[in-house]
Amino acid sequence: MKEYKMKYGKEKVNLCLNEENLMGVIESNKIDNKKSEEEVILNALENPIDSPKLCDIVNEGEKICIVISDITRAWQKMGAYLHYIVDELNKGGVSDEDIVFLSATGSHRKQSKEEHDILLGEKLADRFEVIDHDCLDKENLVYLGKTSFGTPVEINRIAMGCDHIILTGAIVFHLLAGWGGGKKSILPGISSYDSIMKNHSMSLNPEMGSGSNPEARSGKVKNNPIHEDMLEAAEFVKPSFLFNVIMDSKGNITRAVAGNYIKAHEEGCRIVDEIDGVSINEKADMVIATAGGYPKDINFYQTIKTVINAKEAVKKDGVMIILSECSDGFGNDPIREIIQNYSSLEDRERALRENYSIAKYIGYYVTEVAENHLFILVSKLAPKAVSMANINVVKTADEALKMAYKVKGKNLKTYLMPQGANTFPKLRE
């Protein structure tokens, strides 16, 4: 037996496993990064992809809208790079008075002044204000048309009143759109609630009872209707420039891409896949995964990222042990409601179709995964909180292993995922 340590909340837990059964530890691929964050940022701005430099795109007197992520994406360290983007605009003749920061809240809540200051960073907080997009404010939306998928493209009026729209953010694997960053700053970022829900509803197959759409998933863009729909919506807007960062497992900006909002994003996705896309030869009988501790496992809502990635490494009917403290509980009422208010997957799907939201979908998706696996959650959640979803809650990793061995036997070929929220296992063909 060998002891392994994995992060859980603000601590580490020990796991004792038979080395003969360990198929591997799925971690991000090592990358050579000798540049500072400042060097990474400036290098991207100096070498835009399929685009002139930002300072050469803009002109004096033009109005500029910089779309930034909201506080739920504070890990992107926007304060580290936004002032360099402003410097580029100033260099191109644009004055501070002609620059507006619009937070791509999507369907999220409004933010406080303190949160806005965090987003802008110390160098910009006293120079600019942030406007929160409101997806329900019909008066502040402009209708541009419909995508080929039938999604109404309704975009923030302030953004559409500017001469240039600049997209910022970070690129990671995304459970529905394939990849975060890029066009997601437009839809869902600064789109109407109706636009967002119509787009995200394609996460389900068309027919009732057919469940989640396998084409809408992490790392997939070809034939992914959510990705393609978002791209069509962004084409109505025609952003002038993109700047997206890529983070390492320690939360540092390790790479960045800038330029054409499609081509630069594609290159960023390739880099993320190179770092966090981990090839495996076969799926395991059991996977033990952690998000990487606090704050990534602060609530059940955040746990979905680990669940989605871990599922790719384990066989159907295999064991998933997820270490997620969930010190703040569910973190989202719609998730709790769709798990606790229905006794079957079919009833949950019906309720989701009647009144779709991304939070409800996450709750539904987790129960769908639990239908096909022995799902054991090491957490502070009360066992009854998710028992309706066939999720078994235990307090310790030892209890989780005992349960797994009791149900499935001790000879379980196993993967460990110490960075489960980031690393995406890819089965070699």
From TrEMBL:
Residue ranges annotated for the Lactate racemase C-terminal domain, each copy included: 282-421
Highest rank taxon of the organism: Bacteria
InterPro entries documented for this protein: LarA-like (IPR048068), LarA-like_C (IPR043166), LarA-like_N (IPR018657), LarA_C (IPR048520), Ni_dep_LarA (IPR047926)
Residue span, LarA-like N-terminal domain: 8-209
Listed GO MF terms: lactate racemase activity
Name recorded for this polypeptide: Nickel-dependent lactate racemase
Organism (species): Maledivibacter halophilus
